[in-house]
# Entry
Amino acid sequence: MQKLSLLLILIVASLFVQCKNEKAVESKISIVNSVKYAKGFSIENYGNYAVVTVKNPWPKATKTYKYILKKKNGIIPDSLKNNLTINVPIQSIVVTSTTHIPSLEMLKEEKTLVGFPNLDYISSEKVRSLIDAKKVKELGTNQTLNTEILIDLQPNVIIGYGLDNNNPTLDNLEKSGLKVLLNGDWNEQTPLGKAEWIKFFGALYDKQEKANEIFSKIENDYLKTIEIAKKATSKPTVLAGDIFEGKWYLPSGTSWGSLILKEANSNYLWQKTTGTGSLSLSFETVFEKAKDADFWITSGQFSTLNEMIEANPHYNQFKAFQNRNVYSFAGKKGKTGGILYYELAPNRPDLVLKDLVKILHPELLVGYKPFFFEKLK
# Structure
């Protein structure tokens, strides 16, 4: 009996020492969160596993989501085992927003995409080739994702997003045994914050170093362009957006769209408003403030000035329209009508900023041709 008691004591002591050693090793190899600009997620690395925490997938989210990304032979501490665990690198994925597509493509992992809701929205030529080859399944809409197809596909992960705390579609997928991760790139308030979500995908594919490298280049080019814009000798006034279903929508003053116009060294006429989304105003309110604006950056609704006049003949009362200083990103579309800007721009703010600087201060970027925007004729 005494021998048995002694053996038990030794086993418990050994487990305690092992646990203590694991904690010491874990704290030693823990890497501080490498995410610099994004407010909605963090990544912490612990040797053979990483912890990805999504903190703000939608405005005023009340819950934090923690995902454990386990490499082969990785050992997860008991304290984390109640969280969703993903084996990395993943081999198959379903994403639900076109803004997720460029990250897959930049990481050269677009071939792992097996499903997407409303395939026509995708503009990427590489992914459209995969769609044409029947390698990416149509999943319906975000509100009614086809559960039967998803269960049949059995993707390693589904990347979803929510607009609020009520996400019944995603909840049902989880109840079906599928692994759902939330992505909040759309909720970021800064251009570089949105672009940094490539690191989220880099962690899933065990390509964090590659993702960091891609983001660093975007960051450096963006910051260099800000410095170039500061050399401008003028600060032209800018009007944005246009009318949709009776209301004029344009970026709020603290949104990423407003910030990027400010960093292009322009005077965006609504930059002193608050809010991270869009303002919804009447034509009269906009006309009173912006009738003499130097430039007009429209939405993706129109490809020509004639289309604008057909939609609303009063557009020609604006000075920017009269002077043909109207620019749009509507010209670049995928072959099924998806607008490239909506897909790629949040991931490539460096290109958006260069475009705007070229439009507003053409003398500062001699030889540069805008990537997204075109002057409407």
Notes: The first strand starts at residue 41 and ends at 46. The two ends are 95 Å apart (CA to CA).
